[in-house]
Amino acid sequence: MTLQNLLNKLWEEDPGYFRLKRSSKTVIAILIIGILSFDAPLLVKFFAAITAGFSMQAIVGETRKAQVYFILIAFPIYFICFILGYLSKDSNILSSSLLVILGFTAIYIKKLGPEFNLGPIIAWSFAFFGIILPITSQTQWLTFGSLAFGFLISALVYLFIFPELNSKLFYSNVSKFFKEYSIILQWLAHILIHKVDYDKFLVAKEKSKGYLFQLTVVNGDITQNHNETENLDTVRMYQIYIKQYALAKVVSMIFEAFDHLILQKLTISEIIRSHLFTVFAIYATAISNIEIRHTHSNYQEILNTLAIMEKNLGDFQEVLLSCIVMQKQSIIALVNLNLGLRLIFKNIQALEQIYEK
Amino acid sequence: MKNKFAPTTIWAFQAAIAIILALLIGNAFHLERPYWAVVTSLLLISQTWGESLKKALERVAMTILGGIIGTSLYLSMSHVPIVLFFVLIFVTFFMIYFIGYSFLLSAFFVTIFVVFLFAILGNWSTHILEVRIYETMIGAATAVGTSIFIFPTHSNFNLQTSFKDHLSQTCEVVHLGFDIMDNKADRSSINQVRDRLYNHFRNLSNTYKTSSYEMFFMFIPRKKARVLLNKFAVLLHYVTSFLETTTSIYQENLTYEIQQRLKLIQTIIISNLEKTILLIENSSLTDSLMPIETTWTELLELLITTLKDNPNQQDYILNTLSAVYYLKKINETLLAIETQLKQI
Questions:
Q1: How far is Cα B117 from Cα B106, in angstroms, rounded to an integer?
Q2: Cα distance from B287 to chain A (closest Cα, Å)?
Q3: Cys-Cys link to B51, which of B16, B128, B151, B210 (CB 3.0-4.6 A)?
């Protein structure tokens, strides 16, 4: 298995490599702590590593600034929870009450949003560590220092190693999406002029469709997390996601029409076939040229290509209309192909308007 | 009986009670390491008791399996401390990798992690493994017990409601499609509506996943619920595709005959959707769903004839042909759902 295959496999399991990045960063933080505290007592290594490992899991924030804010607010809260746990450990009533109250709060505030999902449980865990871990008055300052050391390494590693900047991931997914889209359209053009094995078609279409939807779902999740902070960027990302979703859906419609044509062994006239081939091939080229970035798109450059797309679509529609009544058997598949092609055009055109605004 | 509190409030109460129970049991029976029961009870408490039970079974099974594998690994390499450290790092990686993705796998790696963490601190034995297993069982029992007896929320009940709700939403979306064609609704609203339906289906799938563990309150057996869910996914595809086609159709441009048949198809499909909702409530209903084949074939013929005779209306006719195709598919899927529901 090549590295690329492995990465592809990992992507299938974890689109966006969110989990891979998080677990790699945690291990890196622990290793850094191990190296920096090589000569320190085991207690220091232990507390710092546990602190880094736990505290890193709950960090959220779409921008680096938001992540820094989260760290500045959440880490001191974890620290306070640990101290509260430590101070209450000698009283059964106090420590039990602390665990119950924090347990209630940790679940209760989940309703405030996704950023409150894991953080409160981590805070509870720190109180719990403060209660159960064997800290004495002689080692307490060393323990607190180890905690601070763990928090520091956790924050630095989180922010600077494999940074989780979701808007960057979003635009990279959009690029991947259009690349795959173009490949699918090229492949469909190929199918129109060559004989195709239906089983192979089935496997290939499911794979492509799955990949497109995966990229769309990841972007959907990213835009959902963005909802809290509405600004031009987040609105734009949401609009792009909507178009991405609509385009993925159109592929399903087109596949269904092809399914119908291939499975029922329906014949379509040569003139319609050749026009369809041209439209798919031109769409594939146009879409492979689309570049959408954070602040701009190269849409201006492909406006001309879009004009060609529109002209070809018009030509195809004209031919379709002149022959369709003779194609009674395949009429539904053909009108659905026509609809799909028009929806692709419409959605790509709408992308330009997003940047014009 | 419906709970008066919000789901998160109930969940928080359950978590607090589960922790109290675990603490009380720990004190009453002088457990050796009561904290394992406390942590387990908090981590396993979930929004529905089906989910709590699922997590509890997975956690206990993986504690036993992970504990045995971890202990065997540790005993075979305990003389090389550096290897212990690297195994710990390796396990940490996978433990975090699976958090939030697979509870089963993360529970497995958490247990191996605990074995090696204790081992590095110089304190792991088969006795501690036994303690870990039975205290995890106590924590799991308190979580499941609390979920079942304190303000229980049944996901199976939710599943039935979710299927019904989803159909109601689907019904609204189909209505909207027809209203758009009739110029009675805003054409730009489809994105929002489609997203809502899509999200609702995602919640329905999640409810299905957790309901299958509530074995005593079965509304639909697990396998049949799976088949039904797949049919709902197909329905979602056709309904959203239909919605997509409606944005470029203006009914007033179509002939009276076509409009009439479209109205008839609308009435049949809406009525079929409403009957399916009733069927979910009571599967013994005998009123069958209606097919649309005859009207559909007439409509198709009419559309093709209009296509021949009116070249200037061709655009609308092509769009309508697509819409009509998806309407036929919607009805076919509803008929398949009806058959499935009547078998339950």
A1: 16
A2: 31
A3: B210
Chain A residues lying within 8 Å of B151, measured CB to CB: none
Give pLDDT tens digits for B98-147. 987 888 999 999 999 999 988 887 778 899 999 999 999 999 999 999 99
| Angstroms from B36 CA to nearest CA on chain A | 10
Question: Which burial class, exposed, middle or buried, applies to A73 when counting CB atoms under 10 A from its CB (0-12, 13-18, 19+)?
Answer: exposed
Contact A276, A316 (CB under 8 A): yes
* In contact, A292 and A219? CB cutoff 8 Å: no
* Segment 213-252 of chain B within 8 Å of chain A by CB: 237, 240-241, 244-245, 248
> Identity (one letter) of the amino acid at B192?
Q
CA A293 and chain centroid, separation: 16
Nearest to A147 by CA among A131, A165, A129: A129
Those residues whose C-beta lies under 8 Å from the C-beta of residue B163, and which sit 6 or more positions away, are B204, B228, B232, B280
Please report, to the nearest 10 degrees, the dihedral formed by the alpha carbons of residues B121, B124, B129, B132 taken in order.
Answer: -30
Q: Which chain A residue shows the shortest CA-CA distance from B249?
A: A339
CA distance B117 to chain A (A): 9
Average pLDDT value for chain A: 85
Tokens representing A44? 């220091």
The pLDDT assigned to A291 comes to 79
- CA proximity to B107, closest of B116, B98, B119, B117: B98
Which residues have C-beta within 8 Å of that of residue A107, sequence separation ≥ 6? A120, B8, B11, B12, B14, B15, B45
B292-310 burial code (b ≥16 CB/10 A, e <16): beebbeebbebbbebbeee
Show Cβ contacts of residue B52 under 8 Å, excluding neighbours closer than 6 positions.
B44, B45, B46, B143, B144, B146, B147
Write out pLDDT tens, residues A94-110.
999 999 999 999 999 88
The residues, any chain, with a CB within 8 Å of residue B68's CB and separated by 6 or more, are: B129
Binding-face residues of A in 19-78 toward B, CB within 8 A: 19-20, 22-24, 26-27, 30-31, 34, 42, 46, 53, 57
Per the structure block, which two tokens stand in for A291?
Answer: 């570049």
What single-letter DSSP state applies at residue B184?
-
Q: Among candidates A201, A238, A234, which has minimal Cα distance to A216?
A: A238
